[in-house]
Structure formats: structure tokens, C-alpha cells
Specification:
By secondary structure, this protein is of the alpha/beta class. Helix content is 37%, strand content 18%.
């Protein structure tokens, strides 16, 4: 069975409490359950991880090679700052989709730049927790 690693970056542990007008009231536990069920619906395994630490995310990406078949990544603010996460994604040579709960392009200008996008097959943003569902669906098609 093909397997996905779903990674979540800084502050996503606060979903449901942090800026609900921007990120909604869905918690990270809700997102994890949604991802696990969606992946199962497509016959995929799913591991879910969140860290506020850039190095932990890099280590998880490195560890995905040989364990998982693809990455779904919401790097949070690291999307706009982390060349290290981009380099990790490029180095493991796994297909990746970048996701965001909010439409980053309708927000502050600094959020319009994504280092991660260079290493991703595509970017899905602005659909709340459904952004993850769309990413998993796209990756399931890619892994067929």
C-alpha cells in the first residue's frame, strides 16, 4: 500500500484556537482524522506529524525516503522562509504537494512567496481543511 507523510509546521498545533477568522475552528486533530480517512478512502496509508521546529520537519522529510511514497506539507510560516525545508524535499525526490488552510495570496505580501513551491508538484490553498483532502486526492491520482 502506498503511503503519505502529512507534515504540519509551526503554530498549526493551535488550530481551532488561533485566529479562527483566518484558520477556522477545525483543530489539528480534526485535520488528522480527515487526512487519515481520506487517505484510506483512496487505499493509501497516512502518517501525520506536526512540529514547531524546522529541523524536526527536515528530519521527518529525510526519514520519509524509503518509508513513504509522497509528501503533503503545510509548512506554515516556514513556507516563506525555509530553504532548508525546500532542500530536504528536493533531496528525497518524493512527490510533494504544498497546502495551506488560508488563501496566502489574499494576505500579507510576504506570504505570497513560497520557497517550498519550487519542490512541489502543486500548491493548494484557501479551502480550510479541505485543502488537505484535495492534496490527498491529487496525490492518489499521481501514485496510481
Amino acid at each position: 500500500m502506498a503511503s503519505l507523510l502529512v507534515l504540519n509546521g509551526p503554530n498549526l498545533n493551535l488550530l481551532g484556537k488561533r485566529q479562527p477568522e483566518t484558520y477556522g475552528t477545525t483543530t489539528l486533530a480534526d485535520v488528522e482524522a480527515l487526512c487519515t480517512q481520506t487517505a484510506a478512502d483512496f487505499g493509501l496509508g497516512c502518517e501525520f506529524m506536526q512540529s514547531n521546529h524546522e529541523g524536526a520537519l527536515v528530519d521527518a522529510i529525510h526519514g520519509a525516503k524509503g518509508t513513504h511514497d509522497a509528501l503533503i506539507i503545510n509548512a506554515g510560516a516556514y513556507t516563506h522562509t525555509s530553504i532548508a525545508i525546500l532542500d530536504a524535499v528536493l533531496s528525497v525526490e518524493l512527490p510533494a504537494v504544498e497546502v495551506h488552510l488560508s488563501n496566502v495570496h489574499s494576505r500579507e505580501g510576504f506570504r505570497h512567496n513560497s520557497y517550498l513551491a519550487k519542490g512541489a508538484l502543486g500548491v493548494i490553498a484557501g479551502f480550510g481543511a479541505q485543502s488537505y483532502v484535495l492534496a490527498i486526492r491529487a496525490m492518489a491520482e499521481r501514485l496510481k
